[in-house]
Design brief:
This protein is α+β, with helices and mostly antiparallel strands and 544 residues long. It contains 14 helices and 7 strands.
Length: 544
């Protein structure tokens, strides 16, 4: 499918289709009024021209209504049903006269509304539309019904059918322009009127312009060089040759020159117009090609500049990582040492000078020890978070069920209070870094144990399943839970949904979980309900 349509052209063509359908209804309404009140100028336009039959004007009403209702802005299903119903009526109206012509039937529909005088010019059967007119109605009715159908995503049968039908009125129009009576119709059958051929060509334009961003019309509305070239050539190639021929024919009829001179003049003028079109087309293509080359050159310069910028930023990032590693070492060594000293000396004071301290002094020293221990834990968690982003991963096949059991056995001794019942279901194997995924399970299970500590019948379930492209794992508990409106905060650094008085923690554990899972190309999420528990889930890509 051709991309980059010119939105202004698309809108203009759609508007033409809409207003064109209204113009069709209005024009044929005048013809019907001409038949009702016997106004020749409305029926024939000129005295020497053929009349448009009422049986022809009527179907045009349905054509106009159908095209009007099928505009993109009117997309409701009921409107579309009405539009397709009108198109079906047009198809049947075109089919009935064809059967009359082909089988010699007289169904009485030709004179149902109005009777034409006998021996009317161009009329073989009184009141009956021309054979070529009926064929055009049949094809256009089918074309309108298929207006939104696409084959293989880009070909529209409606365009091809309508274009085929357009050859019929185009032939009749040229016949009228040049006085070639034999082109008005087929054989000795009723001929097509001039205004009938014009309205049929309007119908063709309305069908094409109703969907200007699809099929062949997408080329005409494209902003690419092909679209610009098509717009320059197509209307010129359609309109100029007939006009040139008509002008030369008029000159011949008023005896300005003979037939040989007229033909020579036609050939010469056609050559001039064709040459001018070729030069114009070449100029347009050349200009677009120059513009494209300039854009490509600018893109190359920007790409080179981007590469330089990326290299500079990469170097800066490497330098920052070195500084970060140095900082982490400083944190792990320089900060831990004084914290241990504070904790150690506080413990010594409590042990050796307890008899010299009152209860308030002992309480304050215990607060100091507790705070230093919490700060030490915070430092450890920050270092762990930093290492998860820098650690080189070693991908292996991991028995998640076995790993979960080992993690449970490791964290049980460190659990304060009652250990909840932990059920481990069948877990699919995973592909990942053993150390990092173990950290995920440690953090999630530790959280579940912590937040079920106040439950009488605390229970934790670890399960998983295999889906199309990933393995799913979950840790479900019946603990404190959380409000889902704050779920987006769970995996952020230092984001906690419970106070320190309720549950201990640094607010980093879940951030570590998310970073590890993301590094594995997976995803992590949580669901919960206050006082009813929470479920933390993560998914890892399956090995291909």
């Amino acid at each position: 499918m051709i991309k980059n349509p010119d939105s202004r052209l698309v809108t203009a063509f759609e508007s033409f289709s809409e207003y064109g359908s209204i113009a069709i209804i209005f024009s044929v309404s005048l013809v019907i009024i001409g038949w009702i009140f016997d106004i020749p100028v409305l029926k024939n336009i000129c005295p020497n021209l053929l009349s448009m039959k009422v049986n022809t004007a009527g179907p045009f009403i349905f054509v106009g209504v159908s095209l009007y209702l099928l505009q993109k802005k009117r997309s409701d299903q009921r409107t579309r049903y009405i539009a397709h119903g009108c198109a079906f009526i047009v198809t049947m109206i075109g089919l009935l006269p064809l059967t009359e012509y082909l089988f010699g039937w007289e169904m009485g529909i030709d004179t149902l509304l109005f009777k034409e005088p006998p021996l009317t010019a161009g009329t073989f059967h009184s009141g009956r539309m021309a054979l070529n007119t009926a064929l055009a109605f049949l094809i256009n009715g089918i074309s309108i019904s298929l207006i939104d159908i696409e084959v293989r995503g880009k070909y529209r049968p409606s365009e091809f059918l309508s274009s085929t039908a357009a050859l019929i009125p185009l032939t009749a129009l040229i016949g009228n322009m040049y006085g070639a009576y034999g082109l008005f119709g087929i054989g000795q059958y009723t001929k097509m009127a001039l205004h009938t051929s014009i309205i049929f060509l309007m119908v063709h334009a309305c069908i094409l312009f109703a969907r200007p961003d699809r099929g062949l019309m997408a080329l005409l509305t494209s902003e690419n060089a092909g679209g610009i070239l098509a717009r320059r050539l197509v209307f010129t190639s359609i309109g100029v040759p007939p006009l040139l021929g008509l002008l030369i024919l008029i000159g011949k009829r008023v005896e300005l020159y003979d037939a040989e001179y007229g033909i020579a003049l036609l050939v010469m003028s056609s050559s001039i117009v064709t040459t001018a079109l070729v030069w114009l087309s070449s100029f347009l293509v050349d200009r677009k090609d120059k513009e494209r080359k300039l854009v490509m050159e600018d893109l190359r310069k920007y790409r080179d500049l981007l590469e330089v910028t990326v290299n500079e930023r990469t170097a800066e990032l490497k330098s920052s990582n070195v500084e970060l590693e140095a900082f982490c070492y400083s944190v792990s060594h320089d900060l831990r040492t004084p914290l241990r000293a504070i904790d150690g000396f506080s413990r010594i004071v409590l042990d050796e000078y307890a008899n010299k301290l009152d209860d308030e002094g002992k309480r304050l020293l215990n607060v100091v020890r507790s705070s230093t221990q919490k700060m030490g834990q915070l430092i450890d968690d920050l270092l762990a978070l930093s290492r998860t982003g820098r650690k080189e991963m070693t991908m292996t096949e991991i028995d998640m069920e076995k790993l979960t059991n080992s993690v449970v056995e490791e964290i049980k001794p460190a659990t304060v209070g009652k250990i909840p019942h932990i059920e481990i279901k069948t877990l699919p194997a995973a592909t990942g870094d053993l150390v990092l995924l173990k950290q995920v399970l440690v953090n999630l299970l530790s959280n579940a144990i912590k937040f079920t500590g106040r439950k009488e019948n605390a229970a934790i379930v670890v399960g998983g399943r295999t889906e199309d492209h990933e393995n799913m794992y979950y840790i479900k508990d019946n603990g404190a839970g959380f409000d889902m409106q704050y779920a987006h905060k769970l995996f952020g650094v230092f984001q906690r949904l419970h106070t320190g008085d309720e549950f201990d923690g640094t607010g980093i554990g879940l951030a570590i979980v998310k970073r590890i899972i993301i590094r594995h190309g997976g995803r992590v999420w949580a669901e919960g309900k206050v006082n009813e528990g929470a479920t933390f889930s993560f998914a890892l890509p399956r090995k291909k």
